[in-house]
Amino acid sequence: xxxxxxxxxxxxxxxxxxxxxxxxxxxxxxxxxxxxxxxxxxxxxxxxxxxxxxxxxxxxxxxxxxxxxxxxxxxxxxxxxxxxxxxxxxxxxxxxxxxxxxxxxxxxxxxxxxxxxxxxxxxxxxxxxxxxxxxxxxxxxxxxxxxxxxxxxxxxxxxxxxxxxxxxxxxxxxxxxxxxxxxxxxxxxxxxxxxxxxxxxxxxxxxxxxxxxxxxxxxxxxxxxxxxxxxxxxxxxxxxxxxxxxxxxxxxxxxxxxxxxxxxxxxxxxxxxxxxxxxxxxxxxxxxxxxxxxxxxxxxxxxxxxxxxxxxxxxxxxxxxxxxxxxxxxxxxxxxxxxxxxxxxxxxxxxxxxxxxxxxxxxxxxxxxxxxxxxxxxxx
Length: 380
What we know:
By secondary structure, the protein is an alpha/beta fold. The chain folds into 2 domains: 2-180 and 359-378, Glycogen Phosphorylase B (Rossmann fold, 3-Layer(aba) Sandwich), CATH 3.40.50; 183-357, Glycogen Phosphorylase B (Rossmann fold), CATH 3.40.50. Helix content is 38%, strand content 19%. The protein is built from 14 helices and 17 strands. It has helices at residues 16-27, 84-89, 104-114, 133-145, 158-166, 209-212, 214-222, 241-250, 265-274, 289-296, 309-312, 327-339, 341-355, 360-378, and strands at residues 2-6, 34-40, 42-44, 49-50, 61-65, 68-69, 79-80, 95-99, 119-123, 152-155, 174-176, 199-204, 229-234, 257-261, 277-280, 301-304, 319-322. α5 (158-166) links the parallel β10 and β11. The protein starts with a strand and ends with a helix.
């Protein structure tokens, strides 16, 4: 079986969708699937930033097309890669699998499906987001051009499946397959962290305040007792470091909050190993892979009730859930965990056990079965 993966960005660009596609590209060949990847040369969308040099493509055939910024619209949906379209239309695959349905590669993949270049499968990585006129217009127009034309749509959580049905996707075409995690990466992480004078709270992800709620997190830190906890913010700057740094200074939190920036994978694994609590205060999100990674590392999680997060975090058993934007509840949850080492260890152990059910070894065969369904539905 030949499969084309289409994605806006691909590693070494960082992010959940990027990591998701990379795992499919490296793992599906073990299931007898031949994979090609079409992506752009973008390192990040916000701010617009390309890779400056040719990149190694790894074990899969990865083709990068030059991105252009055609329009300044929310969430960088105006970034295009015109050369991708003729490449899709000149090839032939059993399946075209497109990711993140609002981005240009999914439109290119949908066009390829309509012109019979392969059965179309879309993983939207979608969530309702925050209500706005632009979002309502997007949800009326874009699904008709992409999601509703796919043979199969893969939702990452049951909540996402319900949301996709409201966008006009036929429920019988939706399959729920969660994100995966490489549990082996975290096998060496300790079941319980050693004693320390300060409890370390870790945020890992894009520094993108419009989505990740980092300003809320910093304000929550200002509500906590000084000296007993510290926060480390690890991740690439998506236009938020200046805002967060200013807020840290205004609240006099320089001794409690460290902006680490982007780190390579081995160093990120050390950050997980050295932390006591993982926090993800997203204002909206779909299925954050960092939550699975934190759980695989044995960390208790504090996260917001957005998107598929409640499907990942078992409130009160593997972590604590709070409402998005609620700095008081976020601070209270962090204080509770910081003050109770036994509770941290209990939630961390339960989270690690739960993460085993999300191993890529169990996810990849499910994805292949969806491909086979899409091929049968398309027919000869």
